[in-house]
Amino acid sequence: MFTATLHFTQHRECILRRLTADIDTPIPIEIEEIQNGFVTFVLRAGPHADAFESELEAADHVEHVKRLDNENLLITKPSCGAYSAIYQNHGTLRRSNTVSGRQREYNVLVFQRDDLKNIIDDLEGFGTVTLGKLEEFRASTDSLLTERQREVVTEALTRGYYDWPRKITNEELAEELEISRATLHEHLRKAEQTLLSSALADSHKQTGRGRFEHIELE
Fold this sequence. Notes:
- The protein is of the alpha+beta class.
- It is built from 8 helices and 9 strands.
- It has helices at 15-20, 49-58, 82-88, 113-123, 141-144, 147-158, 170-177, 181-207, and strands at residues 2-10, 27-35, 38-44, 64-67, 72-78, 92-93, 96-100, 103-110, 127-136.
- Strands 1, 2, 3, 4, 5, 6, 7, 8 and 9 form a 9-stranded antiparallel beta sheet that branches.
- The protein is globular and about 40 Å long.
């Protein structure tokens, strides 16, 4: 199993590309659900929340926009293709990613190198891809996660929450675990952050923030 950071330049027209084109700092995105070609995510818009909300609400193809607080928006819209490329090739898109105009940064978990090669091949059909970091995933969930986090993540994996297409929705999974949707997402977010931080910690110290090494996939 491997974790990979993919730097993707989007060639297709996309509303997020337009929204963030003139903003210097990458905007964080936290993926909540990908279902039937639609993606639901939290856009950490910060001081741009008002302007983003207005444009998103005016866009016919955006299915849902909800203001969570002063800085964050919950959005459902059709995927521009990247998420399908990742999930159809047996990858799992981790929750935290960024967007900045044409530029995307995706943190992906794959079981085999061939899956990653296929993801990159598909993404190159409508953009340019650079592999920033590739690490073997060796984290021990028993030592890193709380008992409740292990229970939630195990149930999510067992029930196909991370499959493509998903075999269970977040609402159904939360109901089976007898917790709210918000609590489910909090457990998953913290577990994913813990595991990814552990897996990437050593290489981050070696290469430094913003510096990437070339890694062969062969």
